[in-house]
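Action item from last meeting closed. Structure (395 res):
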């Protein structure tokens, strides 16, 4: 490069790297700028149990916990963790890899010395954010990062469902979303989806009946129809009507999908809702936990040309909403006990101060404990939304 030419930014150099070479490129750039001696990219597996190093496939390095230890702490808290290493005297900085609230993993950077300053940690965090965006984009062109997230093979139905999902989290000033699915490696019909705009958020939870490929195909049709209607600028009730027609025309009422549709006004907290089936919604306000009672309407595709009506309720700053699929509230243990509302309320109360991602995971963990060693026989989806609202305009 000519000495008079400006040095490309970190973001530009990461963008220019081949998709499969992001880790190597990141290592080179971090060595140049921070004297980094070792760089490791850890990605969260589909079950959010471990963080796996991105190395030469088909094998990855040894995984570490996604919840304990320095890397796990950085992942769960979404804050940098600095680990002091005595021999040789270095510091290992663990940095969250996150894209707009969707947690992907952790970047571990070993730097010389044992007195790294806050400004350096901040700059390393900016680098990690830039890398996160490139990892998310690279997933369109290479299987490397998707393969590195797997502790075992996904079922075909699960592969289809994960491709359909928008992510596992989303964050804006007005709200933070965290979501979780189980069984992560064999999910079939449960799905969540969202879309944000300048003044609104649309969120849906869909549960296609059946199991495996049949459920996955049904859910893909329902979600595709809902997205198609939403992107045409159609109102919430009519989105449900058009998706209902699409599912009925394909299955003739023999299969259907339960769906909860929510449309938030970011300025006012007014929520339009359509309850088309069995997902349930809870609201936490202060120390109070209440079920949001919505009029139960018919699932999508059960009958021809079903008409749907919207209802409204409000959320206030500090509220938390938790949506759960039938696989959560309708699951029984080996002894026949239903995962009841009292247990759910205990978990929601105990996790009130934890981030939405961890609350969603905790609900599923409680469900797995309830079921026992048999494992889940039905899909389970949980979506947690922390509502911050938008400050009122000042005059």
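Sequence:
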């Amino acid at each position: 490069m000519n000495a008079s030419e400006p040095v490309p930014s970190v973001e530009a150099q990461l963008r220019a790297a081949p998709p499969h070479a992001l880790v190597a490129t990141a290592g080179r750039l971090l060595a140049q700028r921070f004297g980094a001696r070792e760089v490791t990219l850890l990605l969260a597996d589909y079950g959010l149990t471990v963080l796996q190093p991105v190395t030469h496939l088909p094998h990855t390095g040894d995984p570490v916990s996604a919840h304990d230890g320095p890397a796990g702490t950085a992942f769960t808290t979404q804050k940098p963790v600095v680990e002091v290493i005595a021999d040789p005297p270095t510091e290992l900085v663990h940095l969250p890899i996150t894209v707009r609230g969707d947690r992907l993993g952790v970047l571990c950077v070993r730097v010389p010395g044992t007195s790294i300053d806050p400004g350096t940690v901040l700059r390393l965090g900016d680098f990690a954010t830039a890398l996160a965006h490139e990892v998310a984009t690279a997933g369109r062109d290479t299987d490397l990062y998707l393969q590195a997230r797997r502790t075992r093979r996904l079922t075909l139905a699960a592969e289809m469902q994960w491709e359909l999902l928008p992510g596992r989290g989303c964050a804006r000033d007005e709200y933070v979303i965290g979501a979780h699915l189980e069984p992560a490696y064999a999910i079939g019909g449960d799905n969540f989806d969202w879309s944000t705009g300048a003044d609104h958020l649309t969120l849906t939870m869909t549960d296609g009946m059946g199991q495996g490929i049949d459920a996955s195909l049904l859910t893909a049709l329902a979600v595709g129809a809902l997205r198609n209607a939403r992107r045409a600028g159609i109102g919430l009730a009519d989105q449900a009507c058009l998706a209902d027609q699409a599912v009925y025309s394909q299955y003739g009422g023999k299969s259907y999908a339960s769906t909860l549709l929510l449309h938030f006004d970011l300025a006012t907290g007014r929520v339009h809702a359509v309850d088309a089936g069995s997902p349930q919604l809870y609201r936490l306000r202060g120390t109070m936990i209440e079920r949001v009672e919505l009029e139960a309407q018919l699932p999508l595709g059960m009958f021809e040309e079903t008409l749907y009506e919207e209802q409204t309720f409000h959320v206030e700053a500090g509220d938390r909403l938790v949506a759960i699929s039938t696989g959560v509230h309708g699951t029984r243990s080996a002894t026949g006990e239903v995962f009841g509302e009292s247990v759910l309320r205990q978990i929601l109360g105990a996790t009130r101060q934890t981030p939405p991602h961890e609350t969603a995971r905790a609900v599923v963990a409680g469900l797995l404990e309830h079921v026992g060693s048999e494992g889940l026989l039905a899909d389970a989806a949980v979506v947690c939304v922390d509502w911050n609202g938008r400050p009122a305009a000042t005059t």
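Note appended to the action item: The chain is about 35% helix and 30% strand.
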